Amino acid sequence: MSNIAAFMLGEQPDQLGRYIHEILAFDAFWLEHDHKYIQVLFPIDEGTKFNRHAPLVTDADRTAFANDPALRAAHLQALDKMLAFWGLAREGETITPILPLAPATHVWLKPHDHNQLRLSRVIRSLALLGNPAIAVQLSACLLAAADQTGSVSEKTRYHWQHALMVSA
């Protein structure tokens, strides 16, 4: 079992010694200010300058998540935690805002907010690790919000669209 799978299932900690249940217990302050958890909750296939210890998704990880409902469910539990933090909610594959869209209630709608990068990572991670339909829905929800509010840059919109593009 890979490190990513073992972490998601709560069988081993991340590189900083934290188990998934501990990270999922973070309050809004820690979710906003800690910058090293997002890479372990939502690993992707590219490195990051923000966390050199971040795990990288392999073909074996993709196969494991595709074939294991428990891994996909754990990944979605992390997604639901982050969606609530970002003022969004998931019902099945549908993702919608909890409150009316505005930068005051959705921090990621502010121009150049670091949560926009996190959202790009989440979309890509979902697409890579067996939840592509939910990745598409998250991207669509974010792009619709960007259209409605006009407060998200074209560069961010590009990243939200292209995070979905993963090779088979």
For the structure shown, list the relevant keywords:
168 residues, two-stranded antiparallel sheet, 9 helices
How do the helices and strands follow one another from N- to C-terminus? HHHHHHEEHHH
CA-CA gap between termini: 21 Å
Percent of residues in helices: 40-55%
Molecular shape: globular
Radius of gyration: 15 Å
Count of DSSP-assigned helices: 9
Task: Tally the structural domains.
Answer: 1
Q: Largest sheet, order of strands side by side?
A: 1-2
Mean pLDDT: 90
Q: Segments where pLDDT lies below 50 for 5+ residues?
A: none
Protein name: Opioid growth factor receptor (OGFr) conserved domain-containing protein
Pfam family, one: OGFr_N
Domain Opioid growth factor receptor (OGFr) conserved: 27-144
InterPro entries: OGF_rcpt, OGFr
